[in-house]
User: What shape does this take?
Amino acid sequence: MNNFNIPSVKSFKDIYSKAKDKANKYKPKTALIAPHGSAMTESFVKAVNENLIEPFILADEKLFRKYALNNNINIDGYKILDINQPDKAIITASQMSGKNEIDIIVKGRVPAEEFLNILFEKESKFQKKGKPVSHISLFQPKNYQKLLMLTDGAVTVKNDLKSLINITNNAISFSGKIGIDNPRIAVLAAVEVVYPQMDSTIKGAVLAKMAERNQIKGAFIDGPLSFDVAMDMEAAIGKGIKNSEVAGQADIMIAPDIDTGNSIYKAMTLYGDTEMGGIVFGGNVPVTLNAFVDSEQTRFNSILMSVLAS
Amino acid sequence: MDKKPIISSDMLIEQAVAIANDGRKKTVVVAVAQDVDVIEAVVEAQKTGYLNGVLVGDKSKIESLADEKNIDLKEMNIIDEPDVLIAANKAVELASTKEADAIMKGFLPTSALLKTILKKEYNLRGKETLSHCAVLDIPGYHKLLNLTDGGMVVKPTKEQKLGILENAITVSKALNLTPVRIAISGATNLNSSKISHIKDDVEFLIPKAKEMFPDVEIKAPLPFDLATSKKAAKHRNLDDAVSGDADVYLVDSIEECNLVAKSLIQFAQAVFAGVIVGAKVPVSLVSRTDTVKNKKTSLAIACLMADYYDQNNFWGN
Assistant: This one.
């Protein structure tokens, strides 16, 4: 059994310093959609004030200027594109991102499902051909000694093997962007043995084998793993899981389907003793996608993740 | 005894004690009791005063296991049967003849125990669908949340999902919840979603549930946050009787239930009580990784279920 391995990037504090270093060389052009009355705006402004991003506002200009005035926001240096419909703003931001005019998109007050639907419309040209897009969230649970990534809780509706491979590859790629190389990936299921009647266990085993044969590169993958076996070394030992580079020390959890990913993500947001953040990864540019229940810290963390992913 | 709603894991144990004090103390039989975690849980629960335990299994093993952990078996009723299969049958028979009110799984696979329970001769099958309810006490949520099914049905058909729902409602009734507020999971709250089960949930499950079960409020699809956070529900202008106030969160797969429950236990300090519902007696199972508190609340909920069946003559005669 391995010791618990902790990567050099192990907290949101580390993510922050990395984002800061990156922004010192180049501040990503960041578009905020539907800012009015959105808690996201506060975090966006904080990121601007900390010199992490270059602000673009895609909204009704008059309304935004009034909003800034009322909320004491100094918007000197903000580029404002006067677009009064949020759906048009999403499409414009997305098209600009395809032409390298925007490096990050930040969702304001638009329901996530609507936002994503518009983003994935053909007209938006958000998705490059053959390049999968997925949702990635990052946690720093108090009783875990490092960061823990979860995917996919919001974007990938299908959960066939092909989709899970795509999700996994995106997670490995994002992991590299934040400075965690060769991450330890747990493909989650309800149990840690293969049952023919449980599809998720078969996919977990297949992904593990694909990594072993180098068909999926740049990561240790084990599956199927149950939640506690993936995250708790004692449980892994108790269940007799040997020779695993992942059990008890996962850096990344691959959820078996979008329902499960979404529920874990929401449960952690509401009740978890954890810092967190989340983005959409794999399109033209990263998109921060937050729920209303997210804390200010979570929203800011999501921007930091986007800066590193950009 | 009053019928106040049970909204925390402490209340579960208090209620089980109150039932016992009211002269209706339950007997829990352990099938194949040579399992130290199970012995410890039953001894603790008996000490707290809400049940009488009967340990059916290999007596010498039971005694040496208890000895290693300094567990006092003086007050415990032990039936010596070293053979696993015979012990399982003896335990189930006690439930069948109503000498025991609930069954607890010991040192045998869940599937072996259930197979025994469902033997025709014992007449213990209550419903077509047997399902597992994970009743969670999540710090920060204002009531208990029943997540189901994370242990029995791998990928339920819509009919099985209705059976799982019915069992969950029974648990809620035993917890004196009225109305029972049920949220059906979905990664989105849009009916138009591409997620395949949502159509069945909306078009089959909800109308059926409304027709079959009185006193329930039910809504689908609801993501976890809209089901359990009033703040989130309000933000989305959801002011129905379920959003933000769910008693039951009915999910679509064993994975979702299992993984969400475990993430809440691991990273949100949730206390967990599990019970298998659908047989004429509640079946309790705990795992090695459960805390003593989880094990005790699991036994308490089994006692409450058994009492609910008795008081309402739930299965007829």
